[in-house]
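Please check these two lines:
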Amino acid sequence: MSTNLEDLLQTTFHDQTIATHKQTGTIHENHTTITSLEVVLNDGTTLNIAAKTLPESPLFDVLQASLQKEINFYNIVAPTLQYFQEREDVDELYFLPASYGTNLNQSTILLENLKCQGYENVDERLNLGTTRQVLKDLASFHAIPLALKLKDPKVFDTKVKRYLSKAVSLDYSQVVLKIVKIVEEESEFESYLDRIKEKLEEVPEKALRAPFSTMIHSDCCLRNILVKNGDGTADIKLIDFQHCSYGSLADDLILFLYTSVQREVLEEHSNGLIEFYHSNLVRVLEECKCDPTPFSLDALLKEMKTVTSEGQFVHVLSVLLSLFQTKDSDRILLKDRILFVVKDFIERKWI
């Protein structure tokens, strides 16, 4: 274990003596090193910790800027939302990992080790039950900061919004070429091809609109969702908050549904799932004593159509390209998924 990690552990648990600590594993992913630690305090408490650090690399400065955003989330944004949630006596934000400590100078965050608690990344698209649990948690993730904005806008602006990323324009040119090539091969889309190309190529700047602007995850898909399956139930943890931004909650909702849920589930239950998310959003707002009138289901559906025309269509397809690997079987699944998304968006008149 590095001296920096040992120093951070001592600083983090300064009021409790550490009896023993040991490193139990290390993995490297997405330019990040995750070190698994087992820490035993003098009172006998055992903590399984995941230390997220940045190794030296040509991208270090860029990655540290992202890490700063995640540190701000755990040190400032999450505690602000948790305090507000406790004040309003609504359900705890239990789907957020606990943070034990952070140090930007050491480029390190100490988080609870969710893998030791049985949480795992899921390679397959989610079934109906797990999808509903994610949507329930996602609704709370959106509704708590939204309620804070409505009830105490100054606190929201100074303790939440100022630490969120601003939307940036991305270069989707290579994505567009790949998607157009796939769609051109299907005769059923021939009459829609010009419209599809237009929606893919013209990505206007995102506009912030009331009432659905709130804190959003911005990358709410399989790679950032951990699942713990129990007796017919699933517990969820959302991870990786360096891209959290101030934007439309419909962006997260569309991205999650169309990249991370089984096609069969969407074909049979997509409208019901949108309604389920909406009912949980309204429930939390009402628990926070906010007027739900502006947040009708019709208004949400209109918002979903609007954000699709502002770039979420091509964003969904670009994330699908990144989630599927390069082996032949995945190429077939990728093509099938892309064509399903295009067809569904056309039928909904979103494109």
About this structure: The mean pLDDT is 89. Residues 121-347 form a domain with the Aminoglycoside 3'-phosphotransferase; Chain: A, domain 2 fold (CATH 3.90.1200). DSSP finds ten helices and ten strands in the chain. The first strand starts at residue 18 and ends at 29.
